[in-house]
Design a protein that fits this description.
Elements: E1 4-8, H1 15-20, E2 23-26, E3 29-32, E4 35-38, H2 47-55, E5 60-62, H3 67-79, E6 84-88, H4 96-110, E7 116-120, H5 126-140, H6 145-158, E8 159-164, H7 169-173, H8 179-187, E9 190-196, E10 202-209, H9 211-225, E11 233-238, H10 242-256, E12 260-265, H11 268-274, E13 279-284
Parallel strand pairs: 1-2, 1-6, 6-7, 11-12
Antiparallel strand pairs: 3-4, 3-5, 8-9, 8-13, 9-10, 11-13
Helix pairs in contact: 3-4, 5-6, 9-10
């Protein structure tokens, strides 16, 4: 029996696509006014309503996922006699990956005959999801588990993740910038550009005045850093700004047409942190691309 591919909702994979590719998804929780929710079906997620709440400053937050949540989803797969490859969210921005590692250690004791391998993608959203999709292709092509793990780690190092945020309130709330900088930036329509660095941390790499200029800057990064675009699936994620995502899609095709583009709405957990209006781009570059601005 082939090994199982497991990821989490941060991977931002459409539910139907994850099912088609036989990828198991561990759900993360989010809280609206202290009521807990999980997004088990992306097709049923009302992004306009959710991001409308964020724009209105409704209290929405997340909490640390526990090892037990991972065990609940991994244990049945191991009980079926399947080995397991977990493709996880960056340890540089969340403790979720460490919870998965703890769960794997416990499950190895329970299932000593099974292999459980974990990969820290150093990413989130489609920076994680595109790797999980590729892992499912490797598995279905008959690639051994150890080779799939090695490929996933290599792909993680090559995954460039760059995004713009619309509302600086979310960055201020997370302690990324000062209150004064948030107020000035909002008035002047400054749009910060951020990326995931080689350690999986989010860092600011620039700023643009106005959304269209910021979106063009995303495309400029793609044009400068993408490697073999015609052979890869590129990812776009947006937080309730579908028109901007389509505009970016067009710019990518003009710059260097990719093999395909997966365009998704940010799921609620990751979306809570980046904020409404965020637009993100994910593509593969050289081995050292994550260190480049």
């Amino acid at each position: 029996m082939s090994y199982a591919i497991v990821t989490d909702t941060s991977a931002n994979l459409p539910t139907a696509l994850a099912r088609e590719k036989d990828i198991s998804v561990v759900p993360f929780s989010y809280y609206i006014e202290e009521e807990e929710f999980v997004c088990l079906d992306t097709d049923a997620f009302d992004g306009a309503d959710y991001y409308g709440k964020l724009r209105d400053r409704v209290k929405i937050h997340t909490s640390q996922i526990t090892p037990q949540r991972y065990i609940e989803y991994m244990e049945p797969l191991l009980a079926q006699g399947r080995d397991l490859l977990y493709i996880g969210m960056s340890s540089g921005i969340s403790g979720a990956y460490q919870s998965a590692v703890i769960a794997a250690e416990q499950l190895r004791e329970q299932f000593p005959q099974r292999q459980i391998r974990t990969v820290d993608t150093l990413g989130a959203s489609l920076g994680e999801g595109l790797i999980a999709l590729k892992a499912s292709e490797w598995r279905d092509a008959g690639l051994p588990l150890a080779a799939a793990e090695a490929n996933a780690r290599s792909m993680s190092r090559r995954m460039y993740q760059v995004f713009m945020v619309d509302d600086l309130f979310q960055l201020r709330r997370l302690g990324r910038i000062s209150n004064a900088a948030s107020i000035v930036g909002t008035v002047l329509q400054i749009k910060p550009l951020l990326k995931g660095n080689e350690h999986g941390q989010i860092v600011c790499i620039g700023k643009e005045r106005g959304r269209r200029r910021a979106i063009r800057a995303l495309a400029d990064h793609y044009k400068a850093l993408v490697k073999d675009p015609g052979q890869q699936l590129v990812g776009i994620a947006h937080a309730d700004c579908a028109d901007d995502a389509e505009f970016l899609n067009g710019l990518l095709r003009e710059a260097a047409r990719p093999q395909g583009v997966l365009n998704v709405l940010y799921e609620p957990v990751t979306g809570c942190h980046v904020g409404a209006g965020t637009l993100a781009l994910f593509f593969l570059g050289d081995e050292d691309v994550r260190s480049k601005d």
